[in-house]
Every structure is written in structure tokens, then in C-alpha cells.
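call fold(seq) -> C-alpha cells
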Amino acid sequence: MTVVRSAFGCGAALLFFSCVAQAYDLNQVRRLHHDLFNNYNMHVVPSSQTIVKFRMNIKHFDMIEDTQALMVDSWIVNEWVDPRLKWDPEDYGRVYKISVPHTMLWKPDLDVYNNANVGKPLSYGNTLLIVFHDGRVLFVPPVRLHFTCVMDLTFWPHDTHNCTLTIGSWIHDGITIDPQLMHDKPELDINELQTADGKNLTRGMWNLLDANITRNVRVYDCCPEPYIDIKVSMLVARNAPAYDWTVKLPAVGLCILTLVVFLLPPAAGEKVIFGGLSLILDVMFIAYTNMEISNAPTHIPLIVEMVCEQLMLVVASIVVASLTLRMARDPYTKGLHTVIKRPLIVLSYALCLHNYKNIVGFTRWEVSRAHQPYARTFKSDELELGENGTTHLYGGPEVTTSPGLDWLLLSAVVDRVCLIVYVAIFTINMLSFSAVL
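ret:
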């Protein structure tokens, strides 16, 4: 029982002396605050030349495409020496550092030169500063930097932008306030969530490829003293896999869709209908991309150029389809001249138009025989039943005459040549615009 009382008494004594020591330290801190800031003027520069060490920690960033600005959430680390804030720790109960509201101390008037919100200064909130006994002041405020960044959307949606943040003293020259770099690269502390398949999920659609910090000294003609600023360069690239499904694949699909216009029979009226449908889809795609990149007035993205070229090709395909349809369906009293018909027959061999070649002859006897192989070799959807039960071409009974068959062969050759030309143009476009596909 005596041992228990003795232990309890020792514990109570230790607790009492600890409380007394803590109260003693708090009193020392209050006294130190009073001595340091009794005659302190926060509007006066600490010395004739104050070196401010600079470092940056990036927490998050995002591109504001509507205003062409980059928003960066970061910690700006500033460290300088204020000789007026030195003290001997032994005189104040071994107090080596204190925390002070930033509104009580002088701090460098660093501001963003290319601020996107002109007239709106940096907000430090209720951040405290740490003052050390040797006069060092450490200020690490979390700030949101909003600065301009001109975007080049030529390679959208694979665009990359080099954005530069310029920070410096607003009124002091490089002799009074001399910014120095702690590191030539900002620290990256961006929160990411890695999924089971190894993909990184972030808050934005942008990746930071590279970043560096440089110190620049400028001397203007008006003033002999140097002016120093700090430039933070950030190379950001768009990372939006959804655009692969909503932009790139539809663009390629629209280009392939036009091939169907040339693959249909030359006398099929669906060619013009299908071409009109492709034209509407192209216009809708251009309208969608215009909404997405409405902030690119000085240049045109390559993928938009590709679809616009595709739009003109669709218009040309509709014109060609209308001409071939007119040639295949109109009634004719006179066929093609032999000088024209002979090369068409030779050309039909190379263009794999044997069915159309078989129905064209050079004599009336050959024309009469052409109806039989025609009915055997042409597909059923290219034929229709006449009033007297005879089989005719899809274009109507008028094309089964010798002149009509000649013009049908011409329309088929024109259609096939346009198909080959379009395939060549399509291949060239896919190679030319491969950077955005």
C-alpha cells in the first residue's frame, strides 16, 4: 500500500512539473512574440538585399480550355532571412522556432506575371509562417495558380502544350529581392488511383510530361538595375482515351462509309440516298468537333481537316452517283460510238466488270444474245420484271436496248474508276493524318 501511494505521489509530481514547464514555455513564447514584434514593421524590406529561395510542389493541375489557361494547385515554398527576427534560444527557454500568421510578417511580393485572373492577387488563406531563431523564415502557402497558356490544337485529340508560369516581385528589382532556386524541377505529388488493369485514374484528362524551373535576369533600357523572374515550364499532354471511341473511330468510319456509294450498282437509286445520309453524318461530326474545340480560332485540327475533306468527297460522290444513275436509267435512241465503246470493253476487263461487258455487243446479233448471259450473270436485285414478263435491268426496260446497254457500261466504268480513285485518296488521307488517328 505504501509503494502504491509512493508511485502515485511521484506520478502526480511529474504531471505537476510538466504542466509548470509547459506553462513556462508558453510564457517564454509570449514574451518572445512581444519582443520580436513590438517595433516590427511588416511593410519594410528586411535588408538591402534579401535572397528568397524558391521551390514548388505541384499537387494537381488542369487545363481550362474555354479560357486557354492552366490551373495549378501547388505549394509554393519560400525561404528568406529576416535579421530583425533573430534571438538567442537560451534567453527564451530553449525556444528555437515559432509560428506566426503571415499577415504579421514581411513576405516577398511575388506575383504571377501572366495571371489569367488579372487584378486578383494570390490568396494565402490562414497559412502560418515558421520563424527560426537564426532569422530564417519558412513560408509554404497552398495556392491556386491560374495563368494563361495558348493552346495549339493542331493534333487534337493528341495535343501537347508547353505552358509557362512566370513569377517575380511586382515592384522590387533584383538587388532588393533576389529570387534563388532550391531545385531546377518542381516536385510532383499528384494523387493517382491505379486500377486492377494497371491504368492510372486522375482528376483530369492531362498528363505532365516534363517540368522545369529557370531563373531569368533582365535589364531594361530605362533602368540599370536587373529584374529577376522565375519561369516554371510545364509540358502537358491530353490523355483522354474516350476520344478514341467518340472521335477517332467515327472519323475513320465516316471515311469508309463513302465506299458504299461506289459499291452499289450504277443504276441503283439508293446511291444518292446513301450519299445524302453520309453527308448528314459528316456535318453532324463537324458540328460536334466545333463544339469541342471552339477555342481554336487560329488553326484547324488535323482531324477536322480530314473530315472536311471527307465532306467534299461525299459531295463529289453524290454528284458522280447522280451522273451514273442518269446515264444508266435515261432512255437512249443512239448508243456509244465504236471508238468509245471498244476502249470501254477493254477497260472493263481490268476493272472486273465482266457482267457489264457481256451484255454489250457490236452487232445486232450480239445484242440479241446479250440478254441471255445478262440474266444468268447479274444478281437478282439488279433485275426487275417487265410488263410482258420479260426480265430487264434494274434501271428499267429502256436500258435493255442496245443504246441503253452501252450507256450502262459507261456508267459502270465511271463508277468503278471513281471507286479506285476514292480508295487511293482514302489511303493517302489515312497516312497523312495518322498522327491524330
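The chain has nine helices and 16 strands.
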